[in-house]
Design goal:
globular; 284 residues; six-stranded mixed beta sheet
């Protein structure tokens, strides 16, 4: 039996999940966030340190830190968590495609597009032992090539592929993204048992709701998601592509991607001993 604890990050609208296997007190952490203030490039660990304190206070052993994809809207704390706890770091195996796409954008010569900064590159059908249960991996690309969904017992952690039903679905206009592929990935998730709990990666609080939320079910998504109801594949693709054409780049896309293709690690220090994040001009 698993227990899911959610931590909502107001600055990035991101949800980090701590999943505990009650029988063994092992835990995994999904999509942890670094605190980053872009106006002065200040990087802190206060939020994730709070989660690590909770893990310690509960007497849990963190075995895995997992990212659902290379996020473009926040800096991953995965590498920091690994360093603090010894947990293994996993991500979808197609992260190598994202590294190939974005490594050159930042002239990130230290980034080898082979995923070796991660401890495990996960693919469709993989099953990771976790306490008395396991973590099943679904490859769910479309938002990015590397997106995966982690299924643990009756819970599916879908990253950005789906949002709450009253908000819709992920954008598919990033390099390597594709609206048709996204639709097919969503159908894969919707083929899970109807009562499967769906935990989303973000919530942007639509005007119809006064509280953030992050949990629905497969049945609710299939029946009421505003981007899916009444649309076949062609209709979804047309809707998604038209909507994406109106969207701006995420506020933290430049700092996020150059850190996240490194597994959440910062670029190497330069000759003066300081670390710099790059702002490539006219590259995004």
């Amino acid at each position: 039996m698993i227990h899911v604890e959610a931590y909502f990050d107001d600055a990035t609208n991101t949800v980090t999940y701590l999943v505990e296997d009650a029988a063994t007190q092992q835990a995994v952490l999904i999509d942890p966030v670094l605190d980053y203030e872009p106006h002065r490039a200040a990087l802190l660990t206060q939020s994730v340190d709070g989660i690590l304190s909770d893990i310690s206070a509960r007497g849990l052993t963190l075995t895995w830190v997992l990212d659902t994809h290379a996020h473009a809207d926040h800096l991953s704390a995965a590498d920091y968590v690994r360093a603090q706890t010894g947990a293994k770091l996993g991500i979808g195996e197609k992260i190598t495609e994202v590294q190939k796409l974005f490594g050159p954008v930042f002239n990130a010569r230290d980034v080898c597009a082979n995923g070796t900064v991660f401890d495990a590159l996960l693919k469709e059908g993989d099953e990771i032992p976790f306490g008395s249960t396991s973590i099943k991996v679904l490859h769910t690309p479309g938002h990015t090539p590397a997106c995966v969904t982690y299924v643990i017992e009756d819970a599916a952690f879908v990253g950005d592929t789906l949002f709450m039903p009253d908000y819709g679905t992920a954008r598919a206009d990033f390099p390597g993204g594709d609206a048709r592929t996204l639709y097919q990935s969503i159908q894969k998730i919707l083929r899970l048992p109807p009562d499967t709990r769906v935990f989303v990666g973000h919530d942007y609080l639509p005007s119809t709701r006064d509280q953030v939320a992050w949990e629905s079910t497969v049945a609710e998504q299939g029946e009421t998601n505003i981007h899916l109801s009444g649309l076949d594949e062609a209709g979804f693709v047309a809707m998604r592509e038209a909507r994406d054409a109106t969207l701006q780049a995420p506020r933290l896309i430049l700092p996020s991607l150059q850190v996240n293709i490194r597994g959440g690690a910062l670029p190497p220090a330069e000759t003066d001993g300081h670390v710099y994040l790059k702002l490539p001009v006219n590259r995004i």
